[in-house]
Design brief:
The complex is a heterodimer of chains A (342) and B (221). Chain A has 342 residues and is of the alpha+beta class. Helix content of chain A is 27%, strand content 27%. In chain A, the strands form 6 sheets. A 6-stranded mixed sheet of chain A has the order 15-14-16-19-18-17, sandwiched between helices. In chain A, strands 6-7-11-9 form a 4-stranded antiparallel sheet. The longest helix of chain A has 13 residues. In chain B, helix 2 packs across helix 4. Classes of the chains: A alpha+beta (342), B alpha+beta (221).
């Protein structure tokens, strides 16, 4: 139960909640913290903050304070790889990455959680790459005092799949890069694909085992895939030959190499002719020529997810469509743009 | 209790079609029974421990009745015409009572839980199976004041309408001008302008289906 008292009668009482002060461009935070005993000297400061009355709280048996509620909510929301401190500020708790990795948000559970009255949680976009200690989500209970049952229900909703937000580590893969194309193989033009792919793989903490150049011959591409697998690669990237020309044979070669699952086509531009295949659960990624011409493509959206252990199939490639249109900005500011954040 | 998928299949046959309301009703009943501590409500030793109030006459109500085995004729199923997707499950021994309410949010969340499914009904069918109970339902512990005339078991009380002579069971009579009256004889009736009629083949019975024709022939002679 909440009781309102005049500021002048508040001396000697304890504050029921943090009182926020905002000085534009200078400061935003609690000027007074919950539990602070109001004294004569505080009255003027509180008046400057627009407070003429304060709340006294007497909790009923089935009620909880916003700070307790925030702790219950944070516990439900936090999944694997998330750290948070049970120190609510202004009824709010931040959830942080406990490790470097990829943020995964259970969007259905998040929506269900936020449809419960009087609670909220905001997160960064799912599949964002994050560093240890990065803020990835924040939650708060909105009123000062609320019933315990809806808060516990919201926490249960949040924990339905072991938490709404998780940070998964990226595994260190040993990658084989296969550059296809007669023009490169015969030295008519210089390859520029291998350095791009090598940098992308190494930026994600993986290693390149070998770069193999092969002509547009299915059997040669197939042999290169098999050789890389035999030499212990657990990730294969094949560039070029993904289009619709008669010389584009990479798909056929990957099929012949014994891939047990092939998904061709992604709802992303650049990257519509992207391919993800699997052989004995080892991903074989087909990268179309856009990977050479654009700084960021579908590969940058999918590769971290593959390295986190996610199995990418038709559904995952299709769901990239919302937010999957790159505006080709100059200069490119990815990841600080909407690309891949649908 | 049988598993969800078996119950869904059976309930759909009993109801006449498979629909999202069946999924919600089965899950509502499974949760309600779990809350009041009944593991198999259709089993002989549990069937008499259960009373269910349904608050809607929609597909969900049939599914609740199928899972729990409650029946109008057994007086274990009560219909409250509230138009609310909710049902209250009462353990008559422990008197624990829980009202399980289907959330409106669950309808909003269907596309989130089954984004890859096409068509509203199919999407609902899948999503309502994927949602956890916490999303699909809210639950209230409630007190239900049970009238002794509402309980299962033999008829406890009969009265006779002073206006039409109809026997009235289980305390449903009303008093008008200090006299016992049945509800149809008051303004509470759901029908009006009643007029008694005769109908063809009036003497038909399952054990003597030709009786009426025999009677007619006898009259013709």
């Amino acid at each position: 139960m909440i009781k309102k008292i005049s500021l002048h009668d508040a001396v000697g009482t304890k504050l029921a909640h943090d009182i926020t002060e905002i000085r534009p461009g200078e400061f935003k935070g609690p000027a007074f913290q919950k539990g602070h005993t109001v004294c004569d000297e505080d009255i003027c400061h509180l008046q400057k903050l627009g407070k003429n009355n304060l709340y006294l709280i007497e909790l009923d048996k089935d009620e909880i304070h916003e700070n307790q509620a925030a702790s219950i909510l944070a516990r439900g929301l936090a999944g694997e790889g998330i750290a948070w401190k049970d120190e609510p500020r202004e009824g709010k708790i931040g959830l942080h990455a406990a490790i470097d990795g990829i943020l995964v948000v259970d969007k259905a559970a998040l929506a269900a959680f936020n449809l419960v009255d009087e609670v909220m949680c905001a997160t960064r976009s799912s599949y964002s790459l994050v560093k240890k200690e990065d803020l990835v989500a924040a939650t708060r209970a909105i009123p000062l005092v609320m019933k315990r049952a809806p808060i516990e229900r919201a926490a249960a909703i949040a924990s339905q799949n072991k938490g709404v937000v998780s940070v998964l580590p990226l595994k260190t893969a040993l990658a084989g890069i296969i550059i296809t194309g007669n023009e490169v193989f015969h030295g008519l033009i210089q390859d520029r694909f291998a350095p791009v792919l090598t940098r992308k793989i190494e930026d994600l903490g993986s290693h390149v085992h070998a770069v193999t150049f092969v002509p547009d011959e299915p059997i040669r591409i197939q042999q290169a895939v098999e050789r890389n697998l035999a030499e212990g690669c657990n990730l294969i990237l094949v560039s070029g030959g993904m289009s619709v020309d008669p010389d584009d044979v990479t798909r056929k070669a990957i099929y012949q190499s014994g891939a047990d699952e092939i998904h061709y086509g992604a709802a992303v531009l650049p990257g519509a002719m992207f391919m993800v295949a699997y052989r004995n659960n080892i991903p074989i990624i087909g990268i179309p020529a856009c990977g050479l011409h654009h700084r960021i493509t579908v590969l940058d959206l999918v590769l971290p997810r593959i390295l986190s252990g996610e199995h990418i199939g038709k559904k995952e490639l299709a769901f990239l469509g919302h937010g999957g249109l790159c505006l080709d900005c100059k200069p490119c500011v990815y990841p600080h743009c909407p690309f891949g954040k649908g | 209790m049988k598993n969800f998928h078996t119950l869904l299949q059976e309930s759909s046959i009993a109801h006449g079609h498979l629909c999202p309301g069946q999924v919600v009703g089965i899950r509502m009943a499974m949760l309600g029974c779990r809350l009041i501590g009944l593991t198999d409500p259709t089993r002989l030793d549990q069937i008499k421990k259960l009373l269910v109030y349904v608050e809607m006459d929609r597909c969900t109500a049939d599914a609740v009745a199928h899972v729990t085995g409650v029946k109008l004729g057994r007086r274990s199923l009560k219909f409250m015409d509230y138009g609310i997707m909710a049902a209250t499950f009462i353990n008559l021994i422990s008197r624990k009572s829980y009202r399980v309410i289907s959330t409106e949010e669950s309808r909003e969340l269907v596309p989130e839980y089954a984004p890859e499914i096409q068509g509203k009904s199919n999407q609902q069918l899948t999503a309502y199976q994927r949602m956890p109970d916490s999303v699909l339902f809210r639950v209230q512990e409630v007190q239900v004041k049970l009238n002794e005339f509402d309980l299962p078991g033999p008829t406890q009380w009969k009265a006779i309408c002073s206006r039409c002579g109809q026997v009235i069971r289980d305390g449903r009579e009303v008093i008008r001008d200090k006299k016992i009256v049945c509800k149809p004889c008051t303004e509470q009736s759901y029908f009006s302008d009643s007029r008694e009629i005769t109908w063809p083949d009036m003497n038909w019975s399952p054990v003597n289906p030709g009786a009426d024709r025999i009677l007619k022939k006898a009259i013709l002679k």
